[in-house]
């Protein structure tokens, strides 16, 4: 099957081995073939894959795995360790020049997301470091690229330096820095035009800008969906310009993101930030260990926990747990819980962050209908507080009223009531289960899945 | 006569500018790919597992797509066994043959656009962010305009900063009107306006731009479905083409893109952009095979006329001609 996650592949192989007490060299070889294919499927460049597999294989055939009592887990550990090491440590700091302003050049292929990222980076500099950046529109080639940066500047309420599209980018950069000094800007972000790494003229132009502005950072902006060519692009830009860091864009898509590994391996330059959405605050520090997990399909648990921590009130969570146990869980609680979960972001994305979610039947392809959640909320909000506390009193007359009030049908109200009852039953079983130590399938099904 | 000779002959008899352009645009692609195949062939004296493994890597390096590569390797192994081939050089011919076969899929590949002889033809462009939708629309507007057609553009990307202005610049360059509303307006409403305008002005072609969106954004995909529905409602049989624009630099995710956008908007063809770099765009073979979406155009540069109709034979010819010419020389020298 195409696009099987790395985790699936590894899990399948590991399951085969888990049954055995001991691992042979042949087993390791088979595992390594799976690791190799999985990485290739994730768009990691084949040369990078080759080196990686060699390394993992050596360690696996060695004492570490073969003598281990849990060889499968040991291999996962080795793979994860090597992957994390290859991705490097977390490095999201931005250079500060001794003498202001600090100059940052944004470079990359067409369509990688340089202009948007320039806006996001400026926003981050101001918000997190309290800086005063000047945006410089040096893309004179793509139609309306200047206009795009100006619009972003307006949205951010930040000045944009532009000389139109008839002045050379080198000249624009030069004058921009003068302007920045005069206006006491401490950062200058130069948005350059997208270009092919094999376009000698345009690469020469970047070198000229570099020569003249002596930038403190040159960020290579790369689309996270890039395939095998990522190595050529990264290598070429790095060789010609000496990039100082990489920004990976469109990581909020569903790509496996193997390009991250390729780029890191050929340039040995840190990936500093990741673009996680279209909004101007959607630029996050790049977390190598999380990326390793993502590529391995182990689920982005850390991000999930972080989201939960910032969005869920721990006091309320405790209270809720108590209610679940004592079966006094009401529609009011349900509504509140729904709100908290929703504040963490789109539900289907949250589910994707759960480790192994792609393995659980019914969860792997779940499409959460946000509209349906709104319907559920509307139904509950159309109940009287007495009905919310004691749903058993809801008669057919009341159902009719609720359906009318929420703009739904009686069937929908019925369905919700039934599912709520089932949920409560499940909760009871769950708390019972803890004593018996028995576990069976999904704890309960949300009515909207 | 080998398969490639036949192909070459067929093409050289009809040498036209397009083929030349195609060749230049694909030079890098071809150099890379074919020299690798040649290296491989030169290095191996016999066909064994290592040979196939390396071949596998070359194809994966061309972003051909994992399943297609596995499939191809299986077929090759089978063919090699059947023909009792001992010479790796012969395998190359089989590779070429199989690649074309995979693309052709036993039928003449439709690369023509579905243009209405009478009345309005509506073409909707979809795809993820940054693939080159607006630029492609500009190039196509130029193409249709120079064919003497009346063209209108619909500025359906109301989200990205500067997107409407970008399309307007293309409108000015090509002398084509752009139907637009303000940034942040409802794209479906823009489409409604555009279709109405196209009908009242008796336009031949309406090219509809949309905002780039990642295919896993459910709400944005629904918005796109709505845009399409508006067009369907206003013009029976429209949109006549839904073209997904794919960046040749994109890896395996291009397959997911094609699949998801097809589900949402019933994509009828592919425009493969940025093929003038070092990226190979091999994923189109897999997409054609698995989803049966043909490539209709390829983008080979940034100029207005750098958009060429896709031709599978020329494409494969472009990929392999250097390899072939080199072996021809070799065999001549041997003689």
TrEMBL record, chain A:
Localization of this protein: Cytoplasm
Residues of the SRP54-type proteins GTP-binding domain: 270-283
Disordered, as annotated region: 387-407
InterPro entries hit by this protein: AAA+_ATPase, P-loop_NTPase, Signal_recog_part_SRP54_M_sf, Signal_recog_particl_SRP54_hlx, Signal_recog_particle_SRP54_M, SRP, SRP54, SRP54_GTPase_dom
Keyword Nucleotide-binding among record annotations: yes
EC number(s) given by UniProt: 3.6.5.4
Keyword set includes Signal: no
One Pfam family from the record: SRP_SPB
CDD domains from the UniProt entry: SRP_G (cd18539)
Enzyme class: hydrolase
Reactions the enzyme catalyzes: GTP + H2O = GDP + phosphate + H(+)
UniProt: GTP binding residues: 108-115, 191-195, 249-252
Entry coiled-coil feature ranges: none
Function of the molecule: Involved in targeting and insertion of nascent membrane proteins into the cytoplasmic membrane. Binds to the hydrophobic signal sequence of the ribosome-nascent chain (RNC) as it emerges from the ribosomes. The SRP-RNC complex is then targeted to the cytoplasmic membrane where it interacts with the SRP receptor FtsY.
PANTHER family for the chain: SIGNAL RECOGNITION PARTICLE 54K PROTEIN SRP54, SIGNAL RECOGNITION PARTICLE SUBUNIT SRP54
Assembly behavior: Part of the signal recognition particle protein translocation system, which is composed of SRP and FtsY.
Domain comment (free text): Composed of three domains: the N-terminal N domain, which is responsible for interactions with the ribosome, the central G domain, which binds GTP, and the C-terminal M domain, which binds the RNA and the signal sequence of the RNC.
Protein name: Signal recognition particle protein
Native species: Bacillus badius
TrEMBL record, chain B:
Catalysed reactions, as listed in the record: GTP + H2O = GDP + phosphate + H(+)
Membrane listed as a keyword: yes
EC nos: 3.6.5.4
Domain SRP54-type proteins GTP-binding: 294-307
Subcellular location: Cell membrane; Cytoplasm
InterPro entries listed in its UniProt record: AAA+_ATPase, P-loop_NTPase, Signal_recog_particl_SRP54_hlx, SR_rcpt_FtsY, SRP/SRP_N, SRP54_GTPase_dom, SRP54_N_sf
Domain of life: Bacteria
Binding site for GTP: 127-134, 209-213, 273-276
Record CDD domains: FtsY
Membrane topology per record: Peripheral membrane protein
Keywords: Cell membrane, Cytoplasm, GTP-binding, Hydrolase, Membrane, Nucleotide-binding, Receptor
Family: Belongs to the GTP-binding SRP family. FtsY subfamily.
Function field: Involved in targeting and insertion of nascent membrane proteins into the cytoplasmic membrane. Acts as a receptor for the complex formed by the signal recognition particle (SRP) and the ribosome-nascent chain (RNC).
NCBIfam families in the cross-refs: ftsY
Subunit composition and interactions: Part of the signal recognition particle protein translocation system, which is composed of SRP and FtsY.
Protein name in UniProt: Signal recognition particle receptor FtsY
Species the sequence originates in: Bacillus badius
Lineage: Bacteria, Bacillati, Bacillota, Bacilli, Bacillales
GN (gene name): ftsY
């Amino acid at each position: 099957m195409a696009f099987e996650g790395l985790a699936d592949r590894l899990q399948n192989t590991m399951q085969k081995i888990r049954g055995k007490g001991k691992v042979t060299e042949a087993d390791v070889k088979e595992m390594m073939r799976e690791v190799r294919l999985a990485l290739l499927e994730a768009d990691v460049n084949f040369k990078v894959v080759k080196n990686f597999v060699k390394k993992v294989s050596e360690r696996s055939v060695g004492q570490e795995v073969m003598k281990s009592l849990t060889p499968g887990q040991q291999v996962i550990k080795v793979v994860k360790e090597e992957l994390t090491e290859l991705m490097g440590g977390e490095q999201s700091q931005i250079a500060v020049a001794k003498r202001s302003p600090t100059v940052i050049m944004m470079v990359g292929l067409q369509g990688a997301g340089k202009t948007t990222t320039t806006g996001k980076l400026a926003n981050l500099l101001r918000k997190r470091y309290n800086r005063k950046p000047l945006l410089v529109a040096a893309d004179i080639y793509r139609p309306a690229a200047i206009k795009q940066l100006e619009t972003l500047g307006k949205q951010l309420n930040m000045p944009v330096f532009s000389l139109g599209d008839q002045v050379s980018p080198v000249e624009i950069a030069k004058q921009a820095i003068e302007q920045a000094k005069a206006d006491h800007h401490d950062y200058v972000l130069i948005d350059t035009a997208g270009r092919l790494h094999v376009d000698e003229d345009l690469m020469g132009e970047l070198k000229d800008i570099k020569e003249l502005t002596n930038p403190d950072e040159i960020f290579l902006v790369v689309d996270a969906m890039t395939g095998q060519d990522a190595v050529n692009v990264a290598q070429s830009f790095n060789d010609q310009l000496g990039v100082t860091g990489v920004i990976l864009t469109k990581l909020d898509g569903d790509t496996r993101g193997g390009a991250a590994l390729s780029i890191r391996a050929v340039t040995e330059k840190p990936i500093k930030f990741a673009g996680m959405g279209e909004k101007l605050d959607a630029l996050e520090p790049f977390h190598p260990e999380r990326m390793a997990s993502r590529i391995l399909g182990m689920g982005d648990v850390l991000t999930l926990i972080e989201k939960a921590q910032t969005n869920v009130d721990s006091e309320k969570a405790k209270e809720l747990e108590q209610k679940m146990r004592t079966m006094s869980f009401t529609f009011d609680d349900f509504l509140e819980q729904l709100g908290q979960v929703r504040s963490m972001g789109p539900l289907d994305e949250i589910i994707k962050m759960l480790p192994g979610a792609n393995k659980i039947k019914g969860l792997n392809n779940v499409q959460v209908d946000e509209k349906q959640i709104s319907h559920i909320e509307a139904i509950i909000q159309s109940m009287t507080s007495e009905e919310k506390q004691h749903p058993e009193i809801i008669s057919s007359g009341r159902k009719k009223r609720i359906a009318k009030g929420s703009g739904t049908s009686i069937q929908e109200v019925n369905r919700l009531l039934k599912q709520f009852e089932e949920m409560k039953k499940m909760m009871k079983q769950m708390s019972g289960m803890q004593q018996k130590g028995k576990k069976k399938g999904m704890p309960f099904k949300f009515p909207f899945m | 006569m080998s398969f490639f000779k036949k192909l070459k002959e067929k093409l050289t008899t009809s040498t036209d500018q397009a083929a030349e352009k195609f060749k230049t645009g694909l030079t890098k692609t071809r150099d890379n790919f074919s020299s690798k195949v040649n290296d491989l062939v030169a290095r191996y004296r016999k066909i064994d597992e290592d040979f196939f493994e390396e071949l596998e890597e070359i194809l994966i390096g061309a972003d051909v797509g994992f399943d297609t590569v596995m499939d191809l390797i299986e077929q090759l192994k089978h063919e090699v066994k059947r023909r009792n081939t001992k010479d790796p050089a012969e395998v190359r011919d089989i590779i070429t043959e199989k690649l074309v076969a995979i693309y052709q899929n036993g039928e003449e590949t439709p690369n023509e656009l579905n243009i209405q002889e009478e009345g309005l033809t509506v073409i909707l462009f979809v795809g993820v962010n940054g693939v080159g939708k607006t630029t492609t629309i500009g190039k196509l507007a130029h193409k249709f305009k120079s064919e003497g057609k009346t063209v209108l553009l619909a500025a359906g990307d109301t989200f990205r900063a500067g997107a409407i202005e970008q399309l307007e610049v293309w409108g000015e360059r090509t002398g084509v009107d752009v139907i637009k509303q303000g940034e942040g307006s409802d794209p479906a409403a823009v489409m409604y306006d555009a279709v109405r305008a196209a009908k009242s002005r008796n336009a031949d072609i309406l090219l509809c731009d949309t905002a780039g969106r990642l295919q896993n954004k459910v709400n944005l995909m629904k918005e796109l479905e709505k845009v399409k529905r508006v067009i369907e409602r206003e013009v029976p049989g429209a949109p006549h083409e839904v073209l997904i624009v794919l960046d040749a630099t994109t890896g395996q995710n291009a397959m997911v893109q094609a699949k998801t956008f097809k589900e949402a908007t019933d994509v009828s063809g592919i425009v493969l952009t940025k093929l003038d770099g070092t990226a190979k765009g091999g994923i189109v073979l897999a997409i054609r095979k698995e989803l049966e979406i043909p490539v209709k155009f390829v983008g080979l540069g940034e100029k207005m006329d750098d958009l060429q109709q896709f031709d599978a034979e020329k494409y494969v010819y472009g990929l392999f001609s250097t390899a072939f010419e080199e072996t021809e020389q070799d065999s001549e020298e041997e003689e």
